């Protein structure tokens, strides 16, 4: 029985503070939308793929040790691509106003498991700059790896291309507003229950019974103004007769 009353009280509180909850959701979504569209800088991404073409003999083709060596080589290339030896030349070629450490924060290198393909992704506030950095990084790496490791097994598989109407990868206004709606709902519900908890006024006979810890013996019904006037009417008539 107590659980049913508790659920009823929760539903009653939500209905009572429904305007507050809806207002909190609308306010949160509005703020998220304004910030996303007007204040956050759009970030664009460009990607290029390079292929590490390992030459293998027939005897080494299914050698587990050779496969492990190739994977270690791929991991080594991941580190070399974002090293100052490569990024310094990228900065020099593109005349960028940054440092190798600063440029490194814009570049992400990934390789699929057991794959000889490396993905170089670059994020920047300008889409054409992201494309230039991605392609230049791949070209510089392809050239410098010959000197650094005395190998010539890197080829550009898919260069980055500037789209006609590039779309930023972040921020995502719709996602931000959806998250803001959930947060606003949680805040609205929390504030509603907090206000209900802080409201100690006695409104019903049940409130009085819970507050005093005593049973209710009787109730005084509300007397309407019309009933009061009707009750006074006969008395005035009798006085006039007297």
Automatic annotation (TrEMBL):
Pfam family membership, one: GNVR
Keywords tagged on the record: Cell membrane, Membrane, Transmembrane, Transmembrane helix
Domain (Tyrosine-protein kinase G-rich): residue spans on this chain: 142-194
Domain Polysaccharide chain length determinant N-terminal stretches: 3-94
Keyword Transmembrane helix among UniProt keywords: yes
Broad class of the protein's primary localization: membrane
Transmembrane annotation, as ranges: 18-40, 174-195
Coiled-coil portions: none
Family: Belongs to the CpsC/CapA family.
PANTHER family membership: FERRIC ENTEROBACTIN TRANSPORT PROTEIN FEPE (PTHR32309:SF13), TYROSINE-PROTEIN KINASE (PTHR32309)
Name listed for the protein in its UniProt record: Capsular polysaccharide biosynthesis protein
Originating organism: Sporosarcina psychrophila
Lineage, highest ranks first: Bacteria, Bacillati, Bacillota, Bacilli, Bacillales
């Amino acid at each position: 029985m107590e659980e049913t009353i508790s659920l009823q009280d929760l539903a009653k509180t939500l209905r009572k503070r429904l305007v507050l909850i809806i207002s909190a959701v609308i306010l949160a979504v509005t703020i998220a939308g304004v910030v996303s569209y007007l204040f956050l800088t759009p970030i664009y991404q460009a990607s290029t793929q390079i292929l590490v073409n390992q030459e293998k003999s027939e005897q080494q083709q299914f050698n587990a040790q050779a496969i492990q060596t190739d994977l270690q080589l791929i991991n080594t290339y991941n580190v070399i691509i974002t090293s100052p030896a490569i990024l310094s030349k990228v900065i020099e070629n593109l005349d960028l106003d940054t440092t190798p450490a600063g440029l490194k924060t814009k570049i992400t290198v990934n390789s699929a498991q057991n794959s000889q393909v490396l993905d170089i992704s670059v994020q920047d506030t300008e889409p054409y700059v992201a494309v230039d950095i991605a392609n230049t990084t791949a070209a510089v790496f392809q050239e410098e790896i010959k000197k650094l490791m005395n190998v010539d097994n890197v080829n550009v598989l898919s260069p980055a291309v500037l789209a006609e109407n590039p779309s930023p990868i972040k921020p995502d206004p719709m996602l931000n507003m959806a998250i803001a709606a959930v947060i606003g709902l949680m805040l609205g519900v929390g504030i509603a229950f907090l206000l209900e908890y802080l409201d100690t006024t006695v409104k019903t006979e049940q409130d009085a019974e819970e507050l005093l810890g005593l049973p209710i013996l009787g109730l005084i019904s509300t007397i309407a103004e019309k009933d009061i006037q009707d009750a006074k009417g006969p008395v005035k008539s009798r006085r006039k007769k007297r």
